[in-house]
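Quick check before the chapter quiz. The format below is the same one you will see on the exam, so make sure you can read both the input and the output lines.
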Amino acid sequence: MNKKIIASITIVLGIIGLIFWGRNSVPVEIPKNLGSATALSASEILYDFGTISMQNGLTDHVFKVTNPSEKDIFIKNVSTSCMCTKVYIEGVNGNKGPFGMEGHGYVPPANEIIKAGESRNIKVVYDPNAHGPAGIGFIDRFIYLADQSGDTFQLEIKAVVTP
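Here is the expected output.
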């Protein structure tokens, strides 16, 4: 009887340990010139999904990013802060993507030009199931649009994930 209790406690502690290890095991690489002056703008740079359920699957939001300058901006790279988030550029020549977290599979170059005065829709897709049970709770993810000079424009999504 004692061996069964000890084995059960060991298994429960192991599962709890894996959950906490999983929450902190995803490295986040922040772009080098984050916060550098970029001409891109958006009326909304943060979107809060509120409370979302893992049972409902993928959820998305579209940000409208504008180039208010007098010069064209070449978006070289698009990336995310976590593997659970994918990004698509809805461009004049069709959609590009998915773009994801660097170091977690191939992230193609964006190579998108936003001409002076033009806008692009940036579709962000969040997968609440990507982290399994360890993904329950508050999330805060970032989307980075890097231009050819290395300056980065940042968008953000938040949510509270429930089972």
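If your answer matched, good. Residues 2-162 form a domain with the Immunoglobulin-like fold (CATH 2.60.40.10).
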